[in-house]
Amino acid sequence: GNAREQLLQLEQYLGDSENLYVRIADGWEQLGRPDEAIRLIEEMQASGVTLSYDDKIKLASFYEAAGRPQAAYDLFYEIWLAETNLPRLKFAERQILRLAFRDEQADAAIVRFENELWGGEPSAKKFELLVLFYARNRDVASAQATIDKYVEAYGGDEISLLNQLGRSYRLLELYPEFHETYVQLAERDAENRSRHIQTILLNLLRNEVFETDEERAEQILMWLSRLEQGSESEGASIRTAGILERAGLVDEAIASY
Asked: How is the chain classified by DSSP, letter by letter?
């Protein structure tokens, strides 16, 4: 009773102080009244105050606490659409996926993204989120079809598209396709060739890309020699030997020293 009355009294002095609004909203939430916290933040918004990123995150948490996961989902989606800062973008992305799969809205969300992706200009951002949904749903066939369709529709920079495809294949754990994409990147993106070759080698060491050990060993040796062409140093030989040893190619490791 007393704390509630104090918060109501404080509300009389709000004016246009964004900080005070948020602090009183926090107070309501601590009293177990996220509905009052929401009312206050929405009043602040209606009075013409633009919510900061932190305010929006707080409001989304109030929606969840009040048992309104759809409102939280919509707000995180709004944040995700507007955000360009990568860590914030990834945070919003994780919340969208969490909420969609928690409340079994994933199918509806996938339909929404499909419609938005193909309804206007293809967006790399929406494409990646759609593939993330498929990856979480273990729906490799739909993801593959979307990737193919996107490649066909996309008129932008080839290197950026290949990077996009590589990320999507990794999310879907399609390691042979991931390998092929990075082989193309190594051929076409000379500026970052050694980085792409390192990615190819890591994929060959960690994941099942080829059916036989002979093929895998052959590929590792070939890509290592290409990596070494760009760095004639003792350090490169030691690094090569270490990679060969990890791959179980002990004789080749000794020969490379």
From this structure: -HHHHHHHHHHTT-TT-HHHHHHHHHHHHHTT-HHHHHHHHHHHHHTTPPPPHHHHHHHHHHHHHTT-HHHHHHHHHHHHHH---HHHHHHHHHHHHHHHHHTT-HHHHHHHHHHHHHHSS--HHHHHHHHHHHHHHT-HHHHHHHHHHHHHH--S-HHHHHHHHHHHHHHTT-HHHHHHHHHHHHHH-GGGHHHHHHHHHHHHHHS--SSSHHHHHHHHHHHHHHHHHT--SHHHHHHHHHHHHHTT-HHHHHHH-
Q: Whole-angstrom Cα distance, residue 243 to residue 221? A: 10
Q: Per residue of the chain (257 residues), give pLDDT as tens.
A: 566 665 565 555 555 555 667 777 777 777 778 888 888 888 878 878 788 898 899 999 999 999 999 999 999 999 999 998 989 998 999 999 889 888 667 788 888 888 877 877 667 788 888 888 887 777 778 877 887 787 777 755 778 778 877 887 887 788 998 998 899 899 989 999 989 999 999 899 888 898 888 888 889 889 988 887 765 444 455 555 566 566 555 454 444 43
Structure tokens at 143: 């993801």
pTM over 0.70: no
Chain position carrying tokens 């990679």: 243
Distance from C-alpha of 68 to C-alpha of 110, rounded to nearest angstrom? 20
